[in-house]
Design goal:
Layout lengths: L1 H4 L29 E3 L5 E3 L4 H13 L5 E3 L15 E6 L3 H17 L3 E3 L16 E2 L4 H4 L9 E3 L9 H15 L1 E6 L11 H7 L5 H12 L5 E4 L4 H7 L6 H15 L1 H8 L6 H6 L7 H10 L8 E4 L6 H4 L1 H6 L3 E2 L1 H4 L2 H4 L6 H14 L2 E4 L5 H14 L5 E2 L3 H8 L7 H13 L23 E3 L2
Parallel strand pairs: 4-5, 4-8, 5-6, 7-8, 9-10, 9-12, 10-11, 12-13
Antiparallel strand pairs: 1-2, 3-14
Pathway: Glycan metabolism
Keywords: Carbohydrate metabolism, Fucose metabolism, Glycoprotein, Glycosyltransferase, Membrane, Transferase, Transmembrane, Transmembrane helix
Family: Belongs to the glycosyltransferase GT106 family.
């Protein structure tokens, strides 16, 4: 798939050789953008950003190396013997949550001097980390135990989010020593990043971890010239945001129905009237960028119509009609469904985590990566990976949605040149080289003394 992205001739072509749809869509799309051809090849866009999109189309028609380097492999500690017992982990969530859970499990196993049993969904070949003793399965004398009956099953309810190492030493180690085995069920975001000792933080970015395997694959696929765009605009994100996206009453009713089924607690909270209004949420930058807003951002930053764009994500809310602006302004638009034939995709179908892994690999290898929501797991892990392995040559566009909201609200009056200037200023003034703030994820902010070193 990466090799096909190197072919600059890739573009929209006969669907007989590829899937007919370039992007997976939600089954019942709500039309958002209509494109009408006018005289002399001009196009008119209707919808919430119709005027700005028309200006963007017209504009496109006309037209620092980092001092940080990876050093987590410079460790000064010896691997443990795993003699205190066995730890099993069943990671929940998608591929990105699973990656975080697995890395945290390695840290906890080392902290407790335990032997880690490889999670069942992982292939044993990726486990090359020398910091922890690893086995494929429990020894025979422990296999027959009813772990739940003996109190060895620990769920997310039992472990607070981002628990400190002291919690595991005080509460989990006694169970491990007495029962010889602990099974973590869930284990999503159950390890704090502060205070984690230096020698434990470095485990996370071991050169032999899963991320290094991906790194080798990425390097083998270079050089490539494309922008990867993660559109986090699936219906779950749209509904949970409580924002409005120009679809009127029909869209509000559809999203409310989705919330009642999937986010009942949020629906009950809505009834109290204590939640911010959609307008307030948007002004505070709490709404995910729409595909139209992503188009305007890219156009303002100078990406021209020839830019080859890989779109990560699936089931974009609103379907093809919601993507009309993106596909019309950027015709060299591809996805995994477009690059791979149905036969090539077949082994991954019905495995959402594996499909997400394809997006992750392509996004990490891109010349530039743009996200529309900095809080998503995929975007966070991709940007952290690019910081760690990129050497300052793998830029990530992380929009300041609050500042952009103030610019977008003037879509009916602002001139294109002024819009370009304001967007570029907002991006330019966003801090690019940022050390990890206290308590924040090292997966997203690897620039810290535990993981990276400065060369200046």
């Amino acid at each position: 798939m990466l090799l096909r992205l190197q072919d600059h001739r890739v573009g929209h072509h006969d669907g007989a050789s590829r899937n007919s749809s370039s992007v997976s869509v939600w089954p019942q799309p709500q039309p958002q953008v209509k494109v009408k051809k006018l005289s002399k090849g001009k196009k008119h866009y209707s919808g919430i950003y119709g005027r700005l999109l028309a200006l963007a189309a017209h504009a496109l028609a006309e037209v620092p190396a980092s001092a940080w380097r990876p050093c987590a492999d410079q460790r000064n500690w010896e691997p443990d013997e795993g003699k205190n017992g066995y730890i099993m982990v069943t990671a929940n969530g998608g591929i990105n949550q699973q990656c975080v859970a697995i890395c945290n499990a390695v840290v906890v196993a080392h902290l407790l001097n335990a032997t880690l049993v490889v999670p069942k969904f992982m292939y044993s070949s990726v486990w090359k980390d020398a910091s922890v003793r690893l086995v494929k399965e429990l020894p025979e004398e422990l296999k027959s135990l009813d772990l739940e009956a003996i109190g060895s099953v620990v769920t997310d309810i039992d472990v607070m989010k981002e628990s400190k190492p002291s919690f595991y030493l005080k509460n989990i180690l006694p169970i491990l020593l007495q029962k010889r085995v602990v099974h973590f069920v869930g284990f999503g975001n159950r390890l704090a990043f502060d205070p984690i000792p230096f020698q434990l933080q470095t485990i996370i970015f071991s050169p032999h971890a899963v991320s290094a395997i991906i790194a080798r694959n990425v390097r083998a696929a270079k050089p490539s010239r494309y922008l990867a765009l993660h559109l986090r605009f699936e219906i779950d994100m749209v509904a949970h945001s409580l924002c409005e996206f120009g679809g009127g009453e029909d869209q509000r009713q559809e999203l409310e129905a989705f919330r009642q089924i999937h986010f009942p607690a949020l629906t009950e909270l809505e009834k109290t009237g204590k939640l911010p209004s959609p307008a307030m949420l948007r002004s505070e930058g709490l709404c995910p960028l729409t595909p139209e807003e992503a188009v305007l951002l890219l156009a303002a930053l100078g990406f021209n119509r020839k830019t080859q764009i890989y779109v990560a994500g699936a089931q974009i809310y609103g379907g093809k009609s919601r993507l009309a602006a993106l596909s019309n302004l950027y015709p060299n638009l591809v996805t995994k469904e477009y690059l791979l034939s149905p036969t090539e995709l077949e082994p991954f179908m019905n495995f959402s985590s594996q499909l997400a892994a394809l997006d992750f690999i392509v996004c990490t290898a891109a010349d530039a990566f743009a996200m529309t929501d900095s809080g998503s797991q995929l975007s966070s892990l991709v940007s952290g990976y690019r910081i760690y392995y990129g050497g300052g040559r793998m830029p990530t566009i992380r929009p300041n949605k609050r500042r952009l909201a103030d610019i977008f609200v003037k879509n009916n009056t602002i001139e294109w040149k002024v819009f370009e200037q304001r967007v570029r200023k907002a991006v330019r003034q966003t801090k690019h080289v940022q050390s990890r703030p206290k308590g924040r994820s090292v997966y997203r902010y690897p620039r810290c003394k535990e993981c990276m070193c400065r060369t200046d």
